[in-house]
Write a structure and sequence with these properties.
The structure is a homodimer of 552-residue chains. With 552 residues, chain A is of the alpha/beta class. Helix content of chain A is 30%, strand content 24%. In chain A, the strands form five sheets. Chain A has a nine-stranded mixed beta sheet with strand order 2-1-11-10-12-13-14-15-16, with helices on both faces. An eight-stranded mixed beta sheet of chain A has the order 7-6-5-3-4-8-9-19, with helices on both faces. The first copy, chain A, has a four-stranded antiparallel beta sheet with strand order 17-18-20-21. In chain A, helix 7 packs across helix 9 and helix 11 packs across helix 12. The C terminus of chain A is likely disordered. Chains A, B: GO terms for molecular function: 2-methylbutanoate-CoA ligase activity; ATP binding; medium-chain fatty acid-CoA ligase activity; propionate-CoA ligase activity. Chains A, B: Belongs to the ATP-dependent AMP-binding enzyme family.
Chain lengths: 552, 552
Amino acid sequence: MEGGIRCSTNYVPLSPISFLERSAIVYRDRTSVVYGSVRFTWRQTLERCKRLASALVQLGISPGDVVAALAPNIPAMYELHFGVPMAGAVLCTLNTRLDSAMISVLLKHSEAKIIFVDYQLIHVAQGAIDILSKTRTNLPLLVVIQELDQPSPDVSRSRDFEYESLLARERVDFEVRRPKDEWDPISLNYTSGTTSNPKGVIYSHRGAYLNSLATILFNEMLSMPVYLWCVPMFHCNGWCLPWGVAAQGGTNVCQRNVTAKGIFDQISQHKVTHMGGAPTVLNMIINAPENDRKPLPGKVTVMTGGAPPPSQVLFKMEELGFGVIHSYGLTETYGPGTICTWKPEWDSLSRESQAKLKARQGLQHIGMEELDVKDPVTLKSVPPDAKTMGEVMFRGNTVMNGYLKDVKATKDAFNGGWLRSGDLGVKHPDGYIELKDRLKDIIISGGENISTIEVESVLYTHPAVLEAAIVGRPDDYWGETPCAFVKLKDEFNTCAEEIINFCRSHLPHYMAPRTVVFDDLPKTATGKVQKYVLRQKAKAMGSLSKKSKSKL
Amino acid sequence: MEGGIRCSTNYVPLSPISFLERSAIVYRDRTSVVYGSVRFTWRQTLERCKRLASALVQLGISPGDVVAALAPNIPAMYELHFGVPMAGAVLCTLNTRLDSAMISVLLKHSEAKIIFVDYQLIHVAQGAIDILSKTRTNLPLLVVIQELDQPSPDVSRSRDFEYESLLARERVDFEVRRPKDEWDPISLNYTSGTTSNPKGVIYSHRGAYLNSLATILFNEMLSMPVYLWCVPMFHCNGWCLPWGVAAQGGTNVCQRNVTAKGIFDQISQHKVTHMGGAPTVLNMIINAPENDRKPLPGKVTVMTGGAPPPSQVLFKMEELGFGVIHSYGLTETYGPGTICTWKPEWDSLSRESQAKLKARQGLQHIGMEELDVKDPVTLKSVPPDAKTMGEVMFRGNTVMNGYLKDVKATKDAFNGGWLRSGDLGVKHPDGYIELKDRLKDIIISGGENISTIEVESVLYTHPAVLEAAIVGRPDDYWGETPCAFVKLKDEFNTCAEEIINFCRSHLPHYMAPRTVVFDDLPKTATGKVQKYVLRQKAKAMGSLSKKSKSKL
């Protein structure tokens, strides 16, 4: 329209950097970050992030360079979420459970110029660099992050830099490098990184900005929330909440380790209003010994995701005074992509019905344009009959830019104009989706689809079961049969037959497990069960049916 | 970064249209709009807006065409905020207090192809078209909006179209025309339109999207709010809340007229959670006769703006149970541009101190990048001393695209890279800004600046004063002297001398008015006092000082 002029007066590329700059004015003297006896205000956090950005530029970081970080949820990890983008660089947070070999692969793939490492993980990072040094000369610089109030002796090593010392000598009047285009990358998140090729998911400033606002909104996070960090910031950038909490001028309660006692202590001490965690964290809370518990100072909203929360877990969480909200997404959707918006009319339903409804993945949040369940081949939407399965697909501004250096993988993921989640689900008559399984996890037994999630949710209702996972065991006759891996609660005991009979009384016969293994469950750093490990174990067991039977 | 692919899977131009499309799924059966006995759900609202967009296309509307609307806050006005953009067109809402002559000027300037008119305003619109017909042949089509439950006889007129009939014959499967670029215009808002040349402020889809989210956030609007419409939707698109309420799946309580009784009735009946209004609306509420009042069913958050709320008004609103939040902005900033964020530590201050703090304009909201108070010539920021005055300036994504067909005016407004507000203010030590006056309203008396806002705030504390405004009266000796226009409360009486003495006991002598006129105050449709009318009156009075005195 004639008369309009697009210029810096009315057009600023969207970036979470704006959240911090604004909060350093509006909420300047309020606590931004608290960690043990350490406490910063928003004004100080901006200052520290500017010093950090300035240090990165001094160390030779150019716009678009990758800066890696290997650390738990400590203040420096929070600051890296702003300081790195403020230097125009891209933050690559690494899973703290990875070993040196995998870290070396990711450092090589991302071409990280610097790696920030928590003092407890120096050996892992140094090991990775040692591996790299065998084939490369241009190695990433290692910056050590000391515990804030107790400097360790490691600093003296000549080629290491130390985080606080770097900050101390830098300028607070550093001129922030804003993205030229809001599509520019802000971070790089490697998906699980436990199998095959690493995939580096690229997040943009625009997507991070929009997913942060969406996440604030569906968490019903009013201004100045107090957020307890249980979700690792290295996982999908902490579901975008390092940026989201800054947007609302909240307080970030940081903690190095996640324990039930720590959670109750921090909630009580800091009057926490919001937190997040995978169902395993919820499990930890409800199974906490009596001595570790403290009464909640008020309502605590817990966003959970990563796996649907079992109904027993929900009941107990709500008895303790937590309000659980259920979100679902992928690394490729900046973490949260959906929210199971609670309908007021559900309040009057039975507890069991409520738990079933809450276990649904729901619908797209406000930052995501479209969510659908489609036939993966024809792309036809499934009918909203709660029965027909299809692949869950996303489209919108909070879908990743793509996979680093892997246009083919990006094209495959976007095949047909939708992000393929690899998750199988159904659509309920009210539009809400519900996951049934991973495309690769679903068991096909005698031609019937068996949703492992459904079987697991029954197992979780058994009083002796602490954790459970179902995978397919190869079978000469049925193709596959369900095999349960179960971890029992400390004080309980039971046998395979009892578990199988329990399932048969709650499920169609063919869905009940034929095999039960009592064992610890292997998990990723974010608490997801590693089913591919269990599948290997089940495969090693061989067929349950005799060869001869397959002739029938 | 190599590997990223920008495509429709991960990039969708931001538009408030997305809010409606999403709410029609998530909140499908919840009430979207209620108006007397009329009630729609979000699914129905989307359907009606699609029919409306389809009708516009049938009537020949092309992308970028302007569609005008002249109506109070009725359901059709709400639907036009989505239906017009969904046809790719630009919504131009007109002030319902304008006369045919001014409407004809705006229709001509905007080149509106269609005008939607409430049945009570047909004569105004028809009058405007009659004026246009003298010089043009290509006249805008007139579509009449009937009262929803009582069709009027006017429909039969052959060249008129009727809103509901148009919708009834259209298709619900209309394919929505999304903006190609989020910078594309969504609406056109003429500034006051009471003086000189009309200025058509262009809003973009992007700016509207971002200002809607910012406004939701600073209103602390959780999901499914109940919003009572008192702010005219024709004014800055109702402060972006037709879109914002859709984003949160709320209920829009529409009403044709704003009365104290109506406000209390609607709040009570629909359990209103949020509303907005200029201080005159707040005045109306606190001065409501006892019989018109009803107890509030819960906390009602009222966003006020347009003028700082006088402390007495704030006290009384809060006694009644309303929580008042104070925002400030311009038509050029999509309405709200700042928010006076309340600091918890202020809770313990005296009521008077709290009122003074709440009357500040505060700081930029989350959608606005920067706010500053600067010397209008040098662009140097004023010190945060609460004393030095400068011009309030904005920069960010929620600043208008520009003025329609007036690049020169756009350039002037953006001169130096900042949107010039034309408002004078100071910056407090905590960064919060406080307006002192309009650049053109400030009184200069004997070389001293007199903030008319400060004098008015003292007048408002006088028990007999209902409304007050100060302008400069020309003076041969002092240049100007303060002249007060005062409207008294019904049951009160006083004299000029008493008012002057009251001011002198609360203000420096030179700031107190020398003249007091008891009269009704002329106002714009949004409740702002038309000071230029009062200045004309004051000018007509002539100098208070004798000519001879000016020789001294």
